[in-house]
Each structure stands twice: as C-alpha cells, then as structure tokens.
Backbone:
C-alpha cells in the first residue's frame, strides 16, 4: 500500500472527513484529495504534523509497517501524568493499576460463568 492510501486510511480510522482532516494539518480539502489519489506528494512537515496531531506512528505512515497509532490518547495522557509524579507515587500508582487489572480479570471470569 502506498503512502497516499495510508493517509486516507488514517482519516477513515479517525472517522474524519477530508475538510476537517485537511484543516487540522493546514491543507485545503482539494489538496488532500489529490494526495489521497496519488496526484500530489506529501511533505515531511505535513507527515510530522499528522503524526503529532493524530498520534500516528511516523514509521507506519512512511512504510506501512507496525501499528498505525503510536499509542492511544489514554496511554498518552497516562504517561504524561505518570511522568509528573514522584518515584514513590509512581510505584503506588503501578500497584493500584495491578490491583485494578486483577479485579477486572475476576469480574470478567464471573461474567463468563453466569
């Protein structure tokens, strides 16, 4: 799959029309449409902007290898919060997350058995 197809795939995965997608990366809708059909090339600037705006993997957009998204918005927010915590609070948060995971597993098993 070519890069222009991956641009369209990103837009479809995000459920964004061409007008809104183009606006967020500083292009006109007609320019984006030409890129998506392979009649225009994409600049490095716009690739980097797509990656930062929509949390897309630059490696994926250029090669098609790996995962489309760098990480989910939730992961991004959690990492941002986690990095601001003191080491002891980070450890505490990890312990809470592990307990939540265990509780989730138990609830899922209970639902399976009912």
Residues:
């Amino acid at each position: 799959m070519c890069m222009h197809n991956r641009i369209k795939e990103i837009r479809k995965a995000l459920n964004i029309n061409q007008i809104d997608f183009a606006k967020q990366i500083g292009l006109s809708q007609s320019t984006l449409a030409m890129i998506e059909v392979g009649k225009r090339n994409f600049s490095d600037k716009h690739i980097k902007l797509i990656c930062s705006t929509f949390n897309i993997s630059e490696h994926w957009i250029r090669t098609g290898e790996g995962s489309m998204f760098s990480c989910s918005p939730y992961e991004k927010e959690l990492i941002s919060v986690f990095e601001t915590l003191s080491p002891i609070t980070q450890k505490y948060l990890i312990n809470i997350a592990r307990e939540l995971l265990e509780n989730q597993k138990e609830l899922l098993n209970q639902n399976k058995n009912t």
Notes: The chain has two domains: 3-63, 73-113. Residues 102 and 108 are 10 Å apart (CA to CA). The mean pLDDT is 91. Helices lie at 3-13, 18-24, 29-36, 44-54, 58-63, 73-84, 87-113.
